[in-house]
Amino acid sequence: MDDDLEARIRSGKALQESMGNFHVISWDAGSRTLHAGFTVKREYCHTNGTIAQGGFVTAWLDAAMAHAVLHDTDFRQSMVSLEIKVSFLERVGPGEGRVEGRILRRGKRVLFMEGDLYNPDGRLAAQATSTGIIVSASGGG
Questions:
Q1: What pLDDT is recorded for position 1?
Q2: 105-112 long-range CB contacts below 8 Å, 24 or more apart?
Q3: Which helix (H) or strand (E) holds 40?
Q4: Which of 69, 72, 97, 99 can bridge 79 by disulfide, Cβ–Cβ 3.0-4.6 Å?
Q5: For position 137, what pLDDT does the model report?
Q6: Are strands 124-136 and 77-88 parallel, antiparallel or unpaired?
């Protein structure tokens, strides 16, 4: 494997790039809400490049919720999804989107989260709820 690619994988940069340059915009500790942005590329879309495939929408929601856990624990813990439910409300086409991830409740091992995704037109396009298991951010469990 290419050493540069290996470093980009370990740092998370390769994943962020492959998700339309997913990036954290802000963290609100009081409401335990993370705001992030991403680019919906035409190659992520079906129907002649006009509608984002649902797996990408789900991934952006999941990433926002996971990053909320990272921020809430000062990067000591992350999460692994046990289940995620997504409701698709509007189409998500090419352009700049944004997503919010919130922690509703965090116990010793299990946490409950929700997320909202806004399409490039600024309309609420998808909502998710998720249950996860808390893991070490270093991957050690």
A1: 56
A2: 106/69, 106/72, 106/134, 108/134, 109/133, 109/134, 110/82, 110/134, 111/69, 111/79
A3: strand 33-40
A4: 69
A5: 86
A6: antiparallel
